[in-house]
Specification:
Belongs to the SEC15 family. It holds the Pfam family EXOC6_Sec15_N. With about 800 residues, this protein is mainly α. It contains 27 helices and 2 strands. It has a two-stranded antiparallel sheet with strand order 1-2. Helix 16 crosses helix 18, helix 18 runs antiparallel to helix 20 and helix 26 runs antiparallel to helix 27. It is rod-shaped and about 230 Å long.
């Protein structure tokens, strides 16, 4: 082993020993292991023993150094023990005395401790109760509000209880129970508010008729003075009207019972002021529910539900009953329900913030307006009573004015009323058609007898008639027209009044009303009255006297048209000379009727003449004619004389035309009778009898049956017959043939064709030897002459045709 290696081993052992000395005994294992892992543990042990011996010597030195002090201490301690025993005895005595003396104090201290503990507990309890009492008071208030059904204040109390009072109270069982009940109470309030809203909606649906009726009473001009409907700027309910029912804050909400489901009980006392339509309704369920849902964060849900339900109710309200058109009450209920619906919506619009908006209400109104107009057009078309149509028009005007007072546009309703005006006019025309026909059927077609001045003034007040000549005559006297005239004139005025009644309150100008009345009156004159007059003129069995009276009646009615014009101008306050004013067509109507009556007179006269001619019984083969006219013709002449005597009141031209027409028809009918194909032969004797009848007709024409004819004008009607008969009786064929075609021809009115037909009839008689018996010796020459005349007549006819 080298020296250096030995030095290293010694240094290592020294380090290990220091480490053992300085290290805890529990941690020297690894150090000792490093010694036993090496080869010099023997040397180490020696080193260790040497170190131990050094430490023993140090310990011994230390003990020797302190031993004397220890002995001194023990000696002093022995001396102190006696004193300690004495001190102990004193301390024990003192302690005993203290114990005896402290027992009372300890008892007092225990009492004091318990007292202070109680005080602390009381203070703690007071503090806890201070936080709990508001909770209990708030909960008690909540229960009371729920009992009184003041749900919106209850919801506010619930919110304050949950957010403020319960967190301050701490964790108590009753607080936990209250906290658990809060959601259920909220749900109960929400459901109850919705139930009240449903009751409110159902109630206003049932009572919308009452609400609308009250609203219409407020604007009805025929009722006693009422307060006008509140304008949009004054839609907030008066404090006296709704009272606490509209106060929906936490302090003023009134309890809403099941009876208070939306309609307040209001007595219908005519002596008291009619309440406003909105004052009939308690809107607190709506306000309460709105605020409750707003607080609960479900306002949108509430708005959607409210609008959905009101739309459903609107559809129900706008469905009229199938028999609505039968009575005015049906229309009134329909209008009242619509007004009641929109009065409620209008109030909700102006007293809530956003529950319904203007667009929503306008949408509902547009729907209601279109449905209402469609229903009115459908149901009014079934109506045939003008009084009902007029009442319906007034009701529609009141309906429109009521809704217009609440700000709803109603121009379309007035447009529809103008459309209904045509229907009303047609119904009036039908009614007046029956009235006119009844007046015609009941008329006696005789001049009105007037016995006294009072009767005369009465008729003059009914019909504007002025006749100075008649006024000079003494009583009794007769008016020239029949009772039909004043009746028709009064009915015309009644018709104008009926038209005027419909035009009232339609917001039309005087000019428009005047034009409307005049057009309707023109329809009455030109269509209804004209048809009735035509009916009276054309009906069967109408006599000539009736036709004559009809002519006189229409003449006076025509003269009264100017008074009708003035009557219309007076009631419409529009001067008749205003530009573009419609003129009445009465003059033309009565003229047409008069002309029709005149034509009917001509036709009836001709028909009567034909009836008499059917009685004619000529013996066309008679050898000798009689000296007197035929009986049928005498009767006919007598009839014409009596008939024309009735024409004295007719205008001269009408009577002259009738007389001339009768004479012409008589002449042409006699000529046809002579030339009819059934008469195959005509003898000279028959010709003479026929000539006698024609002479009787000419005698009648010369008697001037109707004044006014100049000279022999009426005789011209028989000139064709006269020239024909003269030609054959005088047998003046040479003159006829020689002068034919000349203006100065004696037989200018005898046509070759007529002469040929009659000559053929006489030619057949001649061949049988019955006509020219007195010329038998010259029979051959006469027959030759007839053949020559026939041939020449045929040549004239052929030449005329070419």
């Amino acid at each position: 082993m080298t020296r250096a290696h030995l030095v290293e081993i010694v240094a290592e052992h020294e380090r290990i020993l220091r480490e053992i000395e300085s290290t805890d005994a529990n941690c020297i294992g690894p150090t000792l292991r490093s010694v036993y892992d090496g080869q010099e543990h023997g040397l180490f042990m020696e080193k260790l023993d040497g170190r131990i011996r050094n430490h023993d010597r140090d310990i011994e030195k230390m003990c020797n150094h302190h031993f004397q002090g220890f002995v001194d201490s023990i000696t002093e301690l022995l001396k102190v023990r006696a004193e300690a025993q004495k001190l102990k005895s004193q301390v024990t005595d003192t302690n005993q005395r203290l114990q005896d003396d402290g027992k009372g104090l300890v008892s007092c201290m225990d009492d004091l401790r318990r007292c202070r503990l109680q005080q602390r507990n009381i203070a703690t309890t007071i503090d806890r109760l201070t936080h709990c009492l508001p909770v209990l008071e708030m909960y008690s208030k909540l229960q009371e509000q729920m009992r009184l059904k003041r749900y919106y204040p209850a919801l506010r109390t619930l919110e304050q209880l949950e957010q403020t009072c319960l967190p301050r109270a701490g964790q108590y069982r009753f607080c936990s129970i209250m906290a658990e009940n809060i959601p259920r109470v909220r749900t109960l309030i929400k459901d109850t508010a919705m139930s009240q809203l449903r009751d409110f909606l159902e109630s206003i649906r049932k009572h919308s008729n009452k609400i609308g009726e009250t609203a219409m009473k407020q604007v009805c001009p025929l009722s006693r003075p009422l307060s006008p409907p509140l304008s949009p700027g004054r839609r907030l309910r008066k404090e006296a009207g709704l009272g606490a029912a509209t106060e929906v804050d936490g302090h003023g909400s009134s309890p809403v019972t099941e009876q208070d489901s939306g309609i307040l009980d209001v007595e219908d006392d005519e002596d008291d002021e009619v309440p406003g339509a909105q004052e009939l309704v308690d809107f607190s369920p709506v306000y309460c529910c709105l605020h409750i849902y707003t607080v609960l964060g479900a306002r949108e849900e509430f708005e959607n539900y409210y609008r959905k339900q009101r739309r459903k109710q609107a559809r129900l309200v706008l469905q009229p009953h199938s028999n609505m058109h039968e009575t005015l009450d049906g229309y009134r209920r329909f209008f009242n329900q619509i007004i009641g619906f929109f009065v409620v919506e209008d109030h909700i619009l102006h007293t809530t913030q956003g529950l319904v908006n203007r667009a929503y209400v306008e949408e509902l109104w547009e729907l209601a307006l279109s449905k209402t107009i469609a229903a009115l057009r459908t149901h009014s078309s079934y109506c045939s009573d003008p009084d009902l149509v007029l009442d319906l028009k007034n009701l529609i005007v009141l309906f429109a004015d009521t809704l217009q007072g609440y700000g709803f546009p109603v121009s379309q309703l007035f447009d529809m009323l103008l459309e209904m005006r045509e229907q009303y006019g047609e119904i009036l025309l039908k009614k007046w058609n029956l009235t006119f026909r009844q007046a015609l059927d009941q008329d006696n077609y005789s001049p009105i007898p007037v016995a006294t001045e009072e009767d005369y003034r009465q008729f003059s007040s009914q019909f504007p008639f002025q006749d100075p000549d008649l006024d000079k005559l003494p009583f009794p006297k007769k008016l020239p027209f029949s009772e039909f005239v004043p009746k028709v004139y009064c009915q015309l005025k009644e018709f104008i009044y009926a038209c005027l009644k419909y035009s009232e309150d339609l917001h039309l100008s005087s000019t428009e009303v005047d034009d409307m009345i005049r057009k309707s009156t023109n329809l009455l004159l030109t269509r209804t009255l004209s048809h009735c007059l035509q009916y009276a003129i054309k009906k069967k069995n109408v006599g000539l006297a009736e036709l004559v009276q009809l002519i006189l009646n229409t003449t006076h009615l025509e003269a009264s048209c100017v008074y009708l014009e003035g009557f219309i101008s007076n009631i419409t306050d529009v001067p008749p000379d205003t530009a573009n004013t419609t003129k009445l067509y009465g003059t033309s109507t009565f003229k047409d009727a008069r002309h029709a009556a005149e034509e009917e007179i001509y036709t009836n006269l001709n028909a009567k003449i034909d009836q008499f001619l059917q009685l004619a019984d000529y013996d066309w083969t008679a050898a000798q004619g009689g000296g007197a006219p035929s009986d049928y013709l005498s009767d006919l002449i007598a009839f014409l004389c009596s008939t024309f005597s009735v024409f004295t009141h007719l205008p001269g031209k009408v009577a002259q035309t009738a007389c001339m027409s009768a004479c012409k028809h008589l002449a042409s009918s006699l000529l046809r009778l002579l030339l009819q194909p059934d008469v195959r032969q005509v003898s000279l004797g028959a010709m003479q009898q026929f000539n006698n009848d024609v002479k009787e007709c000419e005698r009648f024409a010369r008697t001037d049956p109707v004044p006014g004819f100049q000279g022999d004008t009426l005789l011209l009607a028989f000139s064709d017959l006269r020239q024909l008969l003269d030609l054959f009786i005088q047998w003046d064929w040479s003159t006829y043939l020689a002068d034919y075609g000349r203006p100065t021809c004696r037989y200018l009115r005898v046509s070759p064709h007529t002469a040929l037909v009659l000559l053929e009839k006489m030619k057949d008689t001649s061949r049988k030897g019955t006509m020219f018996a007195q010329f038998r010796k010259n029979e051959r020459d006469k027959q030759k002459l007839i053949d020559t005349v026939v041939k020449q007549l045929r040549n004239l006819i052929s030449a005329h045709q070419t």
